[in-house]
What we know:
The protein is 49% helix and 14% strand.
Amino acid sequence: xxxxxxxxxxxxxxxxxxxxxxxxxxxxxxxxxxxxxxxxxxxxxxxxxxxxxxxxxxxxxxxxxxxxxxxxxxxxxxxxxxxxxxxxxxxxxxxxxxxxxxxxxxxxxxxxxxxxxxxxxxxxxxxxxxxxxxxxxxxxxxxxxxxxxxxxxxxxxxxxxxxxxxxxxxxxxxxxxxxxxxxxxxxxxxxxxxxxxxxxxxxxxxxxxxxxxxxxxxxxxxxxxxxxxxxxxxxxxxxxx
Length: 241
């Protein structure tokens, strides 16, 4: 009978067989991370590193979203080890992006949060994204347009409208993050959203939502009725002009 070629090989095979037989049902978070670590290190036991990663980053999601440099602070995790973690994160992002592109987005603020949270949580500065949609509310493009603290001088409605015309977009959704973790909108966030709604109305481009990403929470201007309120105020102000 052949003996395991290295320490932990039998344990690793059992984990892989368990996954192939029943998916991730019954797996602890650290066992999922352990499997991912083994993709980059096929001949090394990764159990202790996986447990330490879960302890350090608190959850499976926390490990998936951790910076490569932070992961490598754990003894025994090197550049090859993090390969599986970063690979599965990017595959999950692309899969969800494809799923979002196949259906209307008018009522999908939670789906958008789930998708964007992976790429925006933990950013040290604010990032302003625009989702451009066609007449059927399907995604044309998702683009990063502005970085840094948001104010009226850093977000340019004219640039957004010009890009919308180039893409032949019929409607837009805006997303940005709050590095503080609190998604509640500032007065500047409200002011920018009002300006963008006004610009959209002038050019006959519908603004569907502005979503602010925080720490495991989000704020939706549409869900809170603010986009509708800004639209109403715009038409009242311009009535009869």
